[in-house]
Amino acid sequence: MALDKNGIAQRIAQELRDGWYVNLGIGIPTLVANYIPEGIEVEFQSENGILGMGPFPIDGEEDADLINAGKQTITAMNGAAYFDSAMSFAMIRGQHVQLTVLGAMEVSQNGDIANWKIPGKMVKGMGGAMDLVASAENIIVAMMHANKAGVSKLLKKCSLPLTGVGCVKKVITNLAVMEIKNNAFHLVERAPGVTVEEIMAATEGDLVIPDNIPEMQL
Amino acid sequence: MNKVVKNPVEALEGLQDDMTLMMGGFGLCGIPENSIAEMVRMGVSGLTCISNNAGVDDFGLGLLLQGKQIKKMISSYVGENDEFERQMLSGELEVDLIPQGSLAERCRAGGAGIPAFYTPAGYGTEVAEGKEVREFNGKPHILESALTADFAIVKAWRGDTEGNLIFKATARNFNPMMAMAGKITVAEVEELLPAGSLNPNEIHTPGIFIQRIFQGETFEKRIEQRTVRQK
Question: What residues in A contact B107, CB-CB < 8 Å?
Answer without folding.
Answer: 86
